[in-house]
Amino acid sequence: MTNEFWIFDTNTLLSALFNDNSTPGLALKKARTTGTLLISAEIASEYFNVFSRDKFEKYVAFETRAAFIENIITNALLIEPVTSVNI
Prior knowledge:
11% strand
């Protein structure tokens, strides 16, 4: 593993889940094989919140979405941001 660090937007992870051969899916595969995923508590909370939405049930079962995001969080490095950026 290298010292590359990766942060994924929630929508990008959803796209990766829906199609693992899409650009987001391939990016996630590359990130997981070449470096370390980073998350904060806030990001983890957002992941769970968005992945739990009923509107995604017609695409992927809740159990699959929950397992996917749990795997992402379990295998990521939890960080505490020291700088806040408001855009």
